[in-house]
Specification:
With 170 residues, this protein is mainly α.
Length: 170
């Protein structure tokens, strides 16, 4: 197998992960620009959803193509060498591990994985009890309570966070 194709195979996972990270960053920037300068808090037109999807797809394709051409060029340069450059193999492993670590750390940071925050526990508790909404005082207020609201937005019940048992909503 030619070295250029081996490098494409060797770096395929980091290429996909790196392209996804770049595409999500570009998508977030485009959504932020749309929100700040065009649509704001009003309902967005359906064309905005199509535009954001296209921006994500184009950013993913462009960055994947750039990373792929880079891996191909490096592999082509390495074809004159007698053996596979071990540093490049470890670079592929390290890039994969680093990108996976970045994705997991971000998901942990935003609360998608790991322990659930008090706000999420409070919301789950209130929904499981049949209330329309939930709220908590500011973190530095000194009162760790969970307040459940009725459909009109009035306070229905306030319970200490120590008594809130994690439940699945109905």
């Amino acid at each position: 197998m030619k070295r250029r194709y081996l490098y494409l195979l060797l770096f395929s996972v980091p290429i996909v992960l790196g392209a996804a990270v770049v595409a999500f960053a570009v998508f977030g920037a485009a959504a932020g620009i749309l929100w700040l300068f065009l649509a704001g808090d009003t309902p967005w037109p359906s064309a905005a959803h199509t535009l954001l999807g296209a921006v994500f797809a184009l950013a993913f394709a462009a960055s994947a193509l750039a990373f792929t051409s880079w891996a191909y060029a490096v592999g082509q340069q390495e074809e004159t060498a007698a053996a596979l450059n071990v540093k490049h193999a470890w670079a592929a492993v390290g890039a994969t591990a680093l990108l996976l670590l970045v994705v997991v750390a971000y998901q942990w940071h935003v609360g998608n994985i790991g322990p659930r925050t008090d706000g999420v526990l409070c919301a789950d508790f209130c929904r499981a009890e049949g209330f329309a909404g939930s709220g908590m005082p500011p973190r530095h207020a000194g009162a760790a309570t969970c307040t459940c609201f009725d459909p009109e937005g009035r306070e229905a019940v306030t319970v200490p966070m120590e008594t809130v048992v994690p439940r699945k909503p109905l």
